[in-house]
Design a protein that fits this description.
The protein is α/β, with parallel strands linked by helices and about 280 residues long. The chain contains 9 helices and 9 strands. The chain starts with a helix and ends with a helix.
Amino acid sequence: MSGSDTQTLASPRNAAVRRKKPVHEFIVRRILPPIARSVYTGMARTWRFTTENEATLSRLLEGDRPVVGAFLHSRTFQLLYYFSRPQRGRWMLMCSRSSDGDLMTSVEKGLGYRVARGSSGSGGARALAEMIKAQREDRRLNSCLAVDGSRGPRGIAQLGILTLARKNGGVLLPVAASTPSCWVLNSWDRTAIPKPAAQIRVLIGEPMQLPERMDEQQTEAARLELQRRLIGMHIDLDSRTGFKDAQPLQLVAPPPELGDPGPDSLRSAAEFDEKTEA
């Protein structure tokens, strides 16, 4: 290496860049999470919820099988506080390993959730296996997953939630939420964040029972049925609450690769089954 190269690497500008990164990481991972948690919980305490078909949820929570809640990623903020209330049991979620995921994990843990870290981009299969193991060991622990994953396509059900429900012997429960009083972000999922004092309506769907073993045709049929139910529930609920968005609930996209059990690079259900055997 020449002297000029050494000087370039050791230049004040490069040193400043190296110093900035730890500072940025510290702010994102240490300073912002408690602020985000305080802001969210402060707003959420002003929200008022109305539940439709609540008897179904109560019955399932009193049963001997864990519940696997299925929802659209765009309605996460509306449902986080709702399911954190003590009368609705204990829940486990999955959250990405990104800096945004750090913020969300702080909010979720502050609300009492157990959190597995991973997503479709990184560590999803490991997080899914962690959730399955946890629910096998604690049959009173429930779980929730966004059916369209952490990166979409919007409104297209992925296979991870089916794997979760099959492998832990749980009951798959579609859940929808809607409010006209919200901010809609220009994100891939069109995240809807309720405004202070928002009136939020939650619709509990009819549960789906899945066998532990399913072939590709059965898996695809279950995926499409779950997707159909959730989209239909939201269309109905949005029309009654008055929520409107310029973008559709669902983007047209090819289905997930058959046999892919969920949010990671695993390519066969058999491979995932082997990894998650008790």
